[in-house]
Amino acid sequence: FTDGDVILRTEGLVRKFGEFTATDHVDLAVERGECRSIIGPNGAGKTTLFNLITGALSVTDGTIYFDGEEVTDLSPPERVRRGMGRSFQISNVFGGLTVRENVRLAAQSVSRDEYSLVESLFKPTDSYDGMNEETERILTRIGLENVAEEEADALAYGNRRRLEIGVVLATDPDIVLFDEPTAGMSVEETQETIDLIEEVLVDQTLLLIEHDIELVMELSDRITVLHRGQILAEGTPEDIAGNQAVQDAYLGG
Ligand code: ADP
């Protein structure tokens, strides 16, 4: 990979909580098209790093670049508009709206035309050709075209997950950020979610924060291991599986 392929980069990223350093000089480079996972034992600093990247937390020191531009001080919505899409944990689906409305609303939220979000729901649909095409394309991609008129609240579990991904895709992201996509799920739901990510998000740049090593082995091109706020190891799933320091960190804390 040349440097031109890096879409997300952090340089010397530091986050302190009082005297405690939760993120300790993290240099991360995510390349276009890869699925990168950030793993590490509880307390390693995964969520903190994720929140720094999305803008939910401000940095103590260091710089974040996205798509060649500095985004360190941009608000979370501005980062979404720049192409940093987020899914799960932050619930982004409106239960009382239909599947189609949810996707269209998300697409509308990042479009630059003059209609407001609320207006967009009530305008005659044929005045939104571009938006409607995009909406239908996404409904097909996530396999929900047959339930497009159902309310989100009425969806079965797996379809709800599909819609959550659809809402992220509607923001036309250059990277999709996942914070523990399978937290709290059963074994079956976890496998369904992995399959769904592989099916729907193929070719998409992904950054996945995950506690469960087993889960990321299947999905990741490369894995970054955090320990005590620092990068302990980085490599392919095979590299990481055979890394003694990583095993020690998980066992020893
Ligand atoms: P992980 O997601 O890997 O479990 P976190 O990023 O949640 O780790 O936490 C890393 C460390 O930072 C933990 O020791 C945690 O107690 C501490 N921490 C996280 N958020 C805060 C906060 N808001 N205030 C104080 N300490 C925090």
Characterization of this structure:
The chain has 253 residues and is α/β, with parallel strands linked by helices. The chain has two domains: 1-83 and 174-253, Rossmann fold; 92-172, no CATH class. Helix content is 37%, strand content 25%. It is built from ten helices and ten strands. Strands 6-7-8-3-9-10 form a six-stranded mixed β-sheet, sandwiched between helices. Strands 2-1-4-5 form a four-stranded antiparallel β-sheet, with helices on one face. Strand 1 and strand 2 (20-31) form a beta hairpin. The longest helix is centred in the C-terminal third of the chain and has 14 residues, at 187-200. It starts with 5 loop residues before the first strand and ends with a helix. The mean pLDDT is 87.
How is this structure best summarized?
With 253 residues, the protein is an alpha/beta fold.
Rg over C-alpha atoms, rounded to the nearest angstrom: 19 Å
- Total domain units: 2
Helix content: 25-40%
Mean pLDDT: 87
Using the coordinates shown, work out and report the CATH topology of the largest domain. Rossmann fold
| Strand order across the largest sheet | 6-7-8-3-9-10
Separation, N- and C-terminal Cα atoms: 33 Å
What's the architecture of the largest domain, going by CATH?
3-Layer(aba) Sandwich
Care to count the β-strands? 10
Shape: globular
CATH superfamily of the largest domain: P-loop containing nucleotide triphosphate hydrolases
GO molecular function, one term: ATP binding
Function: Probable component of a branched-chain amino-acid transport system.
Pfam families: ABC_tran (PF00005), BCA_ABC_TP_C (PF12399)
InterPro entries: AAA+_ATPase, ABC_AA/LPS_Transport, ABC_transporter-like_ATP-bd, ABC_transporter-like_CS, BCA_ABC_TP_C, P-loop_NTPase
